[in-house]
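Hi R.,

Here's the chain you asked about this morning:
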Amino acid sequence: MKHKRNERGQSILLFAILMPLMSLFLLGILDYMVTNARVMETVAAADLAAHAGAQEITVLPDGTITATTGGNGIAAMYFNAQRPGYSQLISVSCGRHQGRPACFVTAQTRSAGYLLPARWVTVRAIGYLAHGVTRGDQ
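And here is the predicted structure, written out as tokens:
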């Protein structure tokens, strides 16, 4: 196969231009995938902790919602027992949320930081008390 004199090295030049671009693209995808997996693990831990804390809320027969500090402690204990090493608990608030008995958990997880600078991603989960389900009923 004959090449014209002005076409020599064209494929090498194209490879030299595209290889760094493809590497950046793949690093971006890897960064996104790892960060997404970390966020999903933190969401799962926060969700379970919120539901565990909500079970400690007492609803009196007249509809009065009474939250104990035990609910906050149990939600924090659940989160810290299940949390991945790259996440941290920010706050727990058990009581009345949006007019219903619930526990609200806020946590943060660290992004992967392979391509973009590492940052904290905030995760919020709320667990509502189901009617008639408290720790004493189980």
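One quick note: The helical segments are 10-54, 69-82.

Cheers,
M.
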